[in-house]
Amino acid sequence: MRVTRRGMTMGLAAAIGVVVIGIGGGEARAESQPFSQWLDEFRRDALSQGIRQETLDAAFEGIEPIPRVIELDRRQPEFTLTFQQYMERVVPQTRVEKGRRMLAENRALLDEVGGKYGIEPRFLVAFWGVETDFGRVKGGFQVVPALATLAHDGRRSAYFRKELVNALKIIDQGHVKPADMTGSWAGAMGQCQFMPSSFLNFAVDHNGDGRKDLWNDKADVFASAANYLTRSGWKNDQTWGRPVELPTGFDPALAGPKIRKSLAEWSTLGVRRAGGGALPGRDLQASIVFTEGPGSAAYLVYDNFETILKWNRSVFFAVAVGSLADRIKGG
Hints:
With about 325 residues, the chain is α+β, with helices and mostly antiparallel strands. The protein has helices spanning about 10-15, 35-50, 55-60, 65-75, 85-90, 95-105, 105-115, 120-130, 145-150, 155-170, 195-200, 220-230, 265-270, 305-310, 315-330; strands spanning about 140, 180-185, 240-245, 260, 270-275, 285-290, 300. It starts with 9 loop residues before the first helix and ends with a helix.
């Protein structure tokens, strides 16, 4: 999952037509070493790491740097969204309705996967919807040339070099052909937008055909997303959070993920559900988070909110996924 500055995944940015600036510093010196020379050295290094010669030949046949990738990495104009604008674009009613249809159409498979990994199906559908509009927008770049371009470039070459090796391992294992390994310009792949490292760590061959296909096989897509969440600490007996109203004079120093109190304690401090209702009576630990700093929309969040943040370190993203899941359910 590739994250942009305001927390929008690369697949989602394409899906909703928003231009955002990438993580990282400003302009940096491009790698001065000629690409062909760099590639020869990289091939030798990849061979030493166990990548087969046949894989390298297939993956690098006719490869050239992609100028558009560098442009997107460095020169995107900044376009910031307020939380309200973000939610209107990422969780519109049309996506809620489509999510409900996708849940119904894939109910048997989602129940099977959700039961195995301990994830409510509505959350799997929500991640799927926010990341790639339910598989519609997976990215149009070939991943190997895109990662090679970024690995050759001098700005974040070490990170992308590792991801390029990981991508080659995926090809070497027979999960996808180089030409079919497509994704975002930054290398996020498939319907759940896994970076190659996440693919190697969490992708699952749910249907048992010997391949982990995150591009075309929804069984593998759902199971891989569920495996990621479960291994990242998802608790199926909890939800993610809820919007709340804070009392007048609420101390903003009490907000933040490191400050946890019981629901009873938050109630004593005057925290109420959105609309003024009392908080649930369960004995849960929770935190208060603001979407845009003190005075902005406030949410009471549980452990699963932190798990969502492991997928994408953005409060906007986490609230969007949780809110979409709730609205798909009918909340």
